[in-house]
Amino acid sequence: MSASAYLHCFLGVSGREWRRFVQQRTRFFSALVRPLLWLVVFAAGFRAVLGISIMAPYGTYIVYEVYITPGLCCMILLFNGMQGSLSMVYDREMGSMKVLLMSPLSRPFLLMSKVLAISLVSLVQVYAFLAIAWWYGIRPPLFGLVTALPALLLVAVMLSTLGLVLANAIRQLENFAGVMNFVIFPLFFLSSALYPLWKMQEAGPWLYWLCSYNPFTHGVELVRFALYERLAIPPLLWCLGLTALFGLIAVLTFDLQRGAGARSPAPVHTV
Amino acid sequence: MNILVKGDIGPMLEIENVSHRYGANKALERVSLRLARGGFHALLGPNGAGKSTLIALITGLLRSQNGEIRVAGHSLSRRPRDVRRHLGVVFQQPTLDLDLSVRQNLLYHASLHGLGRRQARECCERELARQHLEPRANDKVRQLNGGHRRRLEIARALLHEPELLILDEASVGLDTASRQALNEHVRTLCRERGMSVLWTTHLLDEIEPQDPVVVLCAGRVIADSQAQALCTHTGTHTLHEAFGLLTTKPSDTVTEGQS
């Protein structure tokens, strides 16, 4: 198979993801409403309680809304990555995964195409959120919106591959509620998205330890610095390493029997 | 099914000693069969015989536990991607994207096979014309009836011009007229394009006397012969009677040589 065959395949997988995104407008609006509620309601209440001192990458005192904006961008990526995993479970249950798996192209490539396609769709939602946040008064440097793009893409891929690992692990559509409670919320709350890590250090060493090893923390920090035109090397290395690790696990754990929607184990009479 | 076409080309499908288990349940036990190139071949069996498991193994959707499968001479264990390139499959469960149009579904499939935009469009229009689906090309799949959806799945399976078309109980859920039309349509494809078709079913009225037939029962091949020869061997008048006799007393295996 030539390189162009792989490109056409990726464009096809990506196009399907875009069409699904356009058709499911409610998904787009709910993806926007969620961080906007945090920004407008939660942050407005918290700004009085939580003072943020001067810290990198900010050159001056900032209001709380400015602090949580990168975290909320990553929140969109997190929810979309997990929703991507939901769509994989859905594809598997509806049988359309079989169509993907009948492709003569390599299966790791097919899975990673799906991940990248989901990630690109997420980026549109992040920039829609940043546009509204800009109008609301959260104004990072204009060029920061450009430098944030690769950082956002890397974090989106990292979280989508994590979603893929989970999709390989969960058997049924209904289990997604469990993913919300046991994956999304802990990842989000035990990170630097809402509070700086030094605040967590004050709260307790265990909390600080959990937050500092949380992949989501590194994603948030990478985006935070990139949004202010700065490259944070340790978070970048963490994100690159974790993306490779999650990608590898996702490919290795991709269970053909469940991927095919086959019932296993099954009594012979239902085969 | 043991008849090979003369010449230097081997069988289209070869299955040797394939067994499969789901946990403690045995779904297939040392299944071996050969499918000659070209023509309509039937895989018969009551519900639960193991037909879908066998199809899932041939298509590589289930990982083979033992035995060997070759499609057009390519080993599934060594060259799975070559096997997939030669296979077109219509699955038992519908696998179309209901919210995409007929054409979009075909183009998506073309992209999964790495076809470029222009080639994909050409293949798409060719298959739409062959399946008489051109007037519905821009309709959402959701708007199609069951028969048209099946035709679309056949169009999709043929888009990359496979050598072997597998239809896994493709007529399930269709009314009698649609079932008959689909069956005739696939037979026409066999005649006109010289392609090999493996048609799995538990509905015997879809089989014609001259069809090569493999009968699977409780995970074992219990007959591999021409449909007419099965009747002769079992001393019955109809395929229904022969099938009934074989599947209730599956101790003897009927093969081509015995008929």
Number of beta-strand segments of chain B: 11
- Helix content class of chain B: 25-40%
Distance between the termini of chain A: 34 Å
Strand content of chain B: 25-35%
Number of strand segments of chain A: 0
Overall spatial form of chain B: globular
Mean pLDDT of chain A: 84
Helices and strands of chain A, in order, run as HHHHHHHHHHHH
**Weakly predicted, low-confidence segments of chain B:** 1-8
| Side-by-side strand order of the widest sheet of chain B | 6-7-8-3-9-10-11
Approximate strand percentage of chain A:
under 5%
Run of helices and strands of chain B: EEEHEEHEHHHEHEEEHHE
User: What's the helical proportion of residues of chain A?
Assistant: over 70%
Largest sheet of chain A: none
Q: Report the oligomer.
A: heterodimer
List the domain count of chain A as a whole number. Answer: 1
As for the CATH topology of one domain in chain B, it is Rossmann fold
The number of helical segments of chain A is 12
Structural class of chain B: alpha/beta
Low-pLDDT sequence parts of chain A: 259-271
In whole angstroms, how far apart are the ends of chain B? 12 Å
Membrane topology (chain A): Multi-pass membrane protein
Family (chain A): Belongs to the ABC-2 integral membrane protein family.
Protein name (chain A): Transport permease protein
Pfam families (chain A): ABC2_membrane
